[in-house]
Every structure is written in C-alpha cells, then in structure tokens.
Design a protein that fits this description.
It is elongated and about 70 Å long. Helix 1 packs across helix 2. By secondary structure, it is an all-alpha fold. Helices cover 88% and strands 0% of the residues. The longest helix has 47 residues. The protein has one domain.
C-alpha cells in the first residue's frame, strides 16, 4: 500500500472547492438566463392574448365556454369511471 499524501491534500481540496464554486456560478448564470427568457416569452404571450381578447371579446367568451364544456365533460367522465 502507498502512504497517504497529506502534503498535497490542502491544494487538492482548494482546487476542488474552486471548481465547485465555478460550476455553481455557471449554473446560477444559466438558470438566471433561462428564467429571464421564460419570463419575457410569457409576457409576450400575455400581451398577445390581452390584445386579442380586447379586439374580439365575444370570440374569447365563446372559446372560454367551449373549454369549460370540454373540461366539465372530461371531469364527469373520469368521476363516473370510479
């Protein structure tokens, strides 16, 4: 068996800690960018939806009613199978 190399351990630990911190900062940066991108896209979709509902209110009411009927029918179907 080889003897333990205690002289190089602090350097190795420091290097590992730095690498871990670098990866942590990279991950945080990527997550922050992704969250920013998703937020901007969601705001764009909300703006588009708002403009279309404002210009076609009765169509929006009809679409909402249709989705409600479909979801209600699915809920009744699932409840009746139990």
């Amino acid at each position: 068996m080889e003897p333990m190399q205690t002289e190089s351990m602090p350097g190795d630990v420091t290097r590992m800690q730095r690498r871990a911190e670098d990866r942590w900062h990279e991950a945080r940066s990527q997550i922050s960018g992704t969250i920013s991108n998703v937020t901007n896209r969601a705001k764009g979709v909300a703006r588009y939806t708002h403009e279309n509902v404002q210009s076609n209110p009765w169509t929006a009411v009809g679409v909402g009613f249709g989705f409600g009927v479909v979801l209600g029918a699915l809920a009744i179907l699932v409840a009746s199978r139990r």
